[in-house]
Amino acid sequence: AATAVLLAACSSGQVGGGSGGGVQNNKQLALIPGVQAEPFYISMQCGAEAEAKKLGYTLTTQAPQQFDAALQTEKVNALGSNPPAALLIAPTDDTAMLAPIQQVANRGTKIVQVDTSLKDSSIAVSSISSNNVEGGQLAAKTLAELVGNRQGSVLVLDTKAGTSTTAARVQGFTDELKNHPNLKSIGVQFTNNEPEQAASKVTAALASTPDLIGIFATNLNTGEGAATGLRNAGKTGQVNLVGFDASPSEVDGLRSGEYQALIAQDPAMIGQQGVDQAVAALEGKPVTKSLTASLHSLTKANMDANSQYFYKQSC
Ligand code: T6T
């Protein structure tokens, strides 16, 4: 039976809309995701494009080649002197991306944050993301259930410092782990959001920590790397792997037993709501300052009933 955990959508605060002052492309929206060709952002783009079309706007996407603030800044700067009416952006660094985004906002473009956010979100008319703290808590509760009464060590794989979402997942996971004294964290490892680095961190942890009983991989790249590390060591299924996201390879891995659970987001909904809020701001309608998208806990047992949450490779 399906046991998807739905974290209720909630909102807080309202800000007034505006006319898009100064920008000429008043039906033009842009999306700058964190990185190109990644199923999370592709699904977000699909949701955003469909909603833009429905509302009579066009949306173009410019994605950096890597999850990197310097490369993303180039994409923001390339919007140039004739920027879109609104920019949906997933900042790859909660601090470094402020200045380039500010420059676009200064030209009259409405800013909407999708998924990740800046430390100071006041530049954005609206911000839409999963409740990542709750996602991390859910991952820890799930791992604790998988492990039962057994004792052991737990490794956490993060992406890059300055990534708001994965930092929140780590926080939620670490807080919840305190309620499960049989599980001892051996710390958080950064991986530069590269699966190869995640794989080698897992290899090293297996060598140094014979009682490793669980891994929390905070996003799809860390998850894919962790699955590789466990497979290379012949430890698939022996060390519980709880991942985040639901990329095609993670979904295959859940089915084959490489992952014991995945916390899936709803990136298409994040994209759709991002467009809705951008358009509301442009049309002078009420805008919701902060929106939370749902999360869904997937296991091998419930995954087929929840296939709508699997991420897409193309629209
Ligand atoms: O987990 C997503 C996203 O929410 C996060 O901010 C960065 O990583 C992903 O894109 C997955 O790789």
TrEMBL record:
InterPro entries: Peripla_BP_I, SBP_2_dom. It is found in: Cell envelope. GO terms for molecular function: carbohydrate binding. Its main location: other. Keywords: Signal. Belongs to the bacterial solute-binding protein 2 family. This is Ribose transport system substrate-binding protein.
